[in-house]
Amino acid sequence: MFYCQNCGSKIESAQKFCSFCGFSFKVEEESNDKDARIYELEQKIVRLEQIGQREQREVKKSISSSFSPWMAILPIGFVAAFLGFFALIIWIVRQ
Ligand SMILES: [Zn+2]
Fold first, then answer.
1. Quick check: pTM over 0.85?
2. CA distance 51 to 57
3. How far apart are CA 73 and CA 87, in angstroms?
4. Ligand 1 mean position, distance from CA 9 (Å)
5. Burial classification of residue 63, based on how many CB atoms lie within 10 Å of its CB (0-12 exposed, 13-18 middle, 19 or more buried)
6. 41: pLDDT strictly greater than 60
7. Sign (positive/negative) of CA torsion 55, 61, 64, 66?
8. Tens digit of each residue's pLDDT (9 = 90 or more) over 12-30
9. Of 14, 28, 60, 82, which shows the fewest CB atoms inside 10 Å?
10. How close is the Cα of 91 to the center of ligand 1, in Å?
11. Intra-chain end-to-end CA distance of the chain, in Å
């Protein structure tokens, strides 16, 4: 014998639904079972891991989308242009 979490009515432990308000005890019943509780926790962990992986993927995606190849090419291009300009000056001065 226990009480309905929803309406507080007395419930026979065999019942899966409250006969007064129709509240389902399925989750509460499962959580009373040790294995079910462990399974529930495992499911939560799996869900959290999936969320974490999804977030990591989204972070990676946002990094890769914001980091365009131009960002890598641009500094190299600047250095190359500077060196070329420098070499040109030296070449002009030596003549
Ligand atoms: Zn009830």
1. no
2. 10
3. 21
4. 6
5. exposed
6. yes
7. negative
8. 877 788 888 988 877 555 5
9. 14
10. 93
11. 105
How many angstroms from the chain centroid is the CA of residue 15? 38
Question: How far, in Å, from the CA of 1 to the mean position of ligand 1?
Answer: 13
State which residues have CB under 5 angstroms from ligand 1, the bound ion. 4, 6-7, 9, 18, 20-21, 23
pLDDT confidence bin for 49, thresholds 50/70/90: very high
Write out the two tokens for 30.
Answer: 């499962």
Using alpha carbons, select from 11, 39, 38 the residue that is nearest to residue 25.
11
Ligand 1: distance of its center to the CA of 33 in Å?
A: 21
